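Thread title: Can someone regenerate the structure for this chain?

I was given the following input by a collaborator and told the matching structure tokens would be attached. They weren't. Posting the sequence so someone can regenerate them.
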Amino acid sequence: MSAQNQNRIKRVSVPDVRARKGGEPLVCLTAYDAPMARLLDPHCDLLLVGDSVGMVVHGLDSTIGVTLDMMILHGQAVMRAAKQALVVIDLPFGSYEQSPQQAFESASRALAETGAQAVKIESGTYAADTIRFLSERGIPVMGHVGLRPQAALNEGGFKAKGRDDMERTRVFHEAREADAAGAFAIVIEGVAEDLAAEITKAVHVPTIGIGASASCDGQILVTQDMLGLFDWTPKFVRRYAQLAEAVQDAVKAYAGDVKSRAFPAAAETYSFKPKNG
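Best answer:
Regenerated them for you:
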């Protein structure tokens, strides 16, 4: 075996993630482009190319306008840079709900054209049949219960779930169904803390919380939220940096240097070098 092959980084696999149930928490973040994926990759077990890209990168009001072509484009960018983390691609609204066959066509295209390792779907009442259909055909699927951004129009916005008995029963049932259908992990978003803990105990696969509970088997955040790139972030986000302020300060300094002609200086300028003789 060559030294190059010996030094090759082993990518986290679907079985690796599944085996972390009840063990060391899974570290997960979103990624939409190659430069950010390269920075996140050494520290993350899983990178999600989320349909949140529509809001975070493209300035949409919701995830509803995101297309499969957009997801594939961003998935390709992330896969060019991520060498270690398991990369999961969201199937966007309208690309999988109609039937398991539609979901298979969308998922197989997403994986074939990006090289990613799995897809994620939001787990409505239809989800169990779709997860089972995809899993039986070799496509790893991550479920998503609780607050489902793709259902925001029907549910009146982005609201926490599981705060009353009816919602609690529904979310718990959807998680159990996703588990039984073959999901290798389940995202739990925006639910009451005790419900997230109950789901985590009830299912056989890792749960990944976002606005859920520290008792989940892992956590995920939108990277730009965690880095403080927006003025507002949800309650469940902890800001680990204030990059918006750093960017504004840098651009302000640049603008001042341009206006005063302090930039470019000699160090940033090319000079003519005549040939000798």
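The domain at 3-242 is CATH 3.20.20.60 (TIM Barrel).
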